[in-house]
Amino acid sequence: MVLISLFSRLAAQSDTVQVQPSQPDSLASFNSQKPHLNYKSLIIPAAFISYGIASLTINDLKRVNFSTREEINEHQPDHIKLDNYTQYAPAVLVYGLNAAGIEGKHNFRDRTIIYATSQIISAAFTLPLKHLVKEERPDQSNNLSFPSGHTAAAFSSAQFMFREYKDTHFWLSLSGYPIAVFTGIYRMLNDKHWVGDVVAGAGFGILSTEFAYWLFPKINSMLGGKTKNRSTMIMPFYQDKSLGLGWVKTF
Fold first, then answer.
1. In the chain, what are the domains?
2. Nearest to 114 by CA among 191, 174, 35, 184
3. CA geometry: angle at 206 spanning 200 and 208, to 5°?
4. Is 3 exposed, middle or buried (0-12, 13-18, 19+ CB in 10 A)?
5. pLDDT for 117-156, tens place per residue?
6. How far apart are CA 185 and CA 75, in angstroms?
7. What is the pLDDT of residues 219-251, one digit of tens each?
8. Strand partners, 237
9. Among 15, 85, 152, 247, which one has the highest count of C-beta atoms within 10 angstroms of its own C-beta?
């Protein structure tokens, strides 16, 4: 599926390390790390969100919403509630794989902080928008259709799985996306969302996880966590006919 191939391009920007010598002839150096947001990884979610917003006002995209619903209703699919559970399935897989010995990028504590942050951000995006936009659901049950919260949670979870395993088990890291796509499709099959709602939800979900990984170093620091790359080393040096000890600390 085209969506899955696009998602595979979403890669995290690794933290850059700058080395600045404390003095020209000294062996001591100071390394500093700052979290950077990879703006290329925001292109796809921004495109999805833009499509969803455009579907609220552009007539051609509105017709896509209605024609898709008409096509679905012609087949009269059974309404199942499986999408209530599949939205979290990729995240559950991450914890299951780690328990089975297939380790991801972060330990239990760190990935839990990241995932919880992503879900909080996702809810902060979707819940206020539902009440601001007030789009009626296809089944006319209420006016909280845009964007799809289930789809946002599903793609947030899928992006979480991708970020945890993309460096060590790339193909495995993509396996959360089909589950997320299934969740979005079933939101439409259950007559709860329009196409634009689901596409926008996918964008907000991916964006939420990207923000969560970007914010993690700051949140971890606030919680008193230790940085993996922090180390201290003492080494001898000889300068100007004098012997001494140099102290190097990497943050």
1. 2-8+44-227 (1.20.144)
2. 35
3. 100
4. middle
5. 999 999 999 999 999 999 999 999 999 999 999 999 999 9
6. 14
7. 999 988 655 555 444 444 444 445 454 444 444
8. 244
9. 152
